[in-house]
Amino acid sequence: MSSTKATSNFRRHLQRKHPEVLKEPEATIMPIQSDQTTVDSFMPDPQLKKWKATNSRQVKLTDSIVSFIANDLLPLSIADSTDFRIFF
C-alpha cells in the first residue's frame, strides 16, 4: 500500500539521501531570460485584448492554464507551441 503523503516522503528522502539538493533553494531557480515568451506576445494586436488582468474571467483563465501545466507536470515550453496558442 502506498503512502498518500508523497510530497512529504519525497522531501524526507531528499533530506536524507540528497541533502545537497535542498541546501540553497534560490540557487536552483533559473534566472529570467530576456528572450522568454511573455503573455502579451500571445495577442497579435493589443487592441484585441478583451479583459484586464484583474478581470475575473481573465484570472480564471490564467489560473486554469497554470493548473493545466503544473498538475500534469508539463514543461513550461508548452506555451511556446503553436497549437497551444491556437487552443487558448
Task: Give the overall shape.
Answer: elongated
Radius of gyration: 18 Å
User: Mean pLDDT, nearest integer?
Assistant: 76
Number of strands: 0
Q: How much helical structure, as a percent, in the residues?
A: 40-55%
Question: What share of the residues does DSSP label as strand, in percent?
Answer: under 5%
* C-alpha end-to-end distance: 39 Å
Biggest sheet details: none
The arrangement of helices and strands along the chain is HHHH
Which structural category fits the helices and strands?
A: mainly alpha
What are the salient characteristics of this protein?
88 residues, mainly alpha, 43% helix
Descriptive notes:
With about 90 residues, the chain is mainly α. It has one domain. The chain is about 45% helix and about 0% strand. The protein is built from four helices and no strands. The protein has helices at about 5-15, 25-30, 55-70, 80-85. The longest helix has 16 residues, at about 55-70. The radius of gyration is 18 Å and the shape is elongated. It starts with 5 loop residues before the first helix and ends with a helix.
Short description:
The protein is an all-alpha fold. It has 4 helices and no strands. The chain has one domain.
List the helices and strands and how they pair.
Layout: H1 6-17, H2 25-28, H3 56-71, H4 82-87
